[in-house]
Amino acid sequence: MKFIWKMTSTIFAMFLGLLVIAASNQASAQGGIWETKAPMSGVRWSAAGGVINGKLYVAGGGNGVNALATLEVYDPATNTWTTKAPMHTIRYGMGAAVINGKLFVVGGDFAAAQKQATLEVYDPAIDTWTTKASMPTARSNPGVVAIDGKLYVAGGCVGWCAPVTNVLQVYDPSTDTWTAKAAMPTGRGIPAVEVVDGLFYVMGGGGGYSSSPDYELMLKAIEVYNPTSNTWTTKAQHLVGGGGTAGAINGKIYVAEDTAATEVYDPATDAWAGLSPMPTARYYATGGVINGKLYVAGGAINGASGFATLEVFTPPCEGSQQPPCEACQQQLQDGLSKIQQKLAQVFRNPQFTIPGATPLEQYDSLVNAILGLNKGRLEGLYMNLGGHGGGEAGEHDEKDRKRRGGGFP
Fold this sequence. Notes:
This protein is α+β, with helices and mostly antiparallel strands. A four-stranded antiparallel sheet has the order 1-26-23-22. A four-stranded antiparallel sheet has the order 2-3-4-5, with no helix packed on it.
């Protein structure tokens, strides 16, 4: 009887564990998951970021007292930050992109309204910065991306932060020269930017005065530049709006916005959807995508209270007809492992596995077995868990059978 009670308690614990997995998996399926990682060495915002070889590089920025030239590198494999060679130019409000394994950092502010046109390039292989040809238009907080080996710089602030500009200028590293391209329909600074299928997406932003007729448009306007045709196209507006940190994952653009709202844009359908909000609301953060996850570092609230925070977003699983995404698979596997560890406290040989089955299939089998328990199924589940294989479970099973003439109570 004592053993049957232990087994019943264990099965109840399994059920609770499965409920936790189900709740976690449901949350992931609907809105994605945010996690907090190791913070930077100090508070800073309006820094520039880029991903090189699976590591996040964060350069410059401000801490509320000084502009910075600091460069830090985050390694997801060890959850640690490392300091590297600083930029030549102290500044904040820059834009950045990666070309051929090097970080290109352009524009920014040295102090209020002291706009920079400086372009510096960091080579991680030799931990060295090199100064290149300056932009034609000095500005801070532009939208910067790399397309086909060239640096595209759109918009930005030419005042503090109004007025804004709509210019688009392109830098060619092979010639160290800049070329003007078609201007954006909507001037703005501090936008979220990304590239999908060779197109330059400029999303939201700001920088104008709240009384300006263009202010609301700046917050929500989505405009897309085609380098081949040198033309801009207007797309569906943000649900919430504002700037933010953007990353392309599986052909969709995820934006962690200034308000903490997280949205995803699907270029195939020209539609936005809301996701789980970022834990820490903040402006002027930076980041990038590593292994299908969006990393968001630093930031501030109204330029007054800064953060060293690093948070990571794992997108939701997509569609019941598709295989579970890596994050969901990991959740299920972790939950199953915990349940099996719990079972090991009661059974000597606890194995509830289906050869060739995925964690999701094992999860479904456990749910169905526990929710459908009756005398016969309880015995079957017990036997599958190794109760017939000797040890404490087998000995108690044999005693109970002899006393009761077989079967479970």
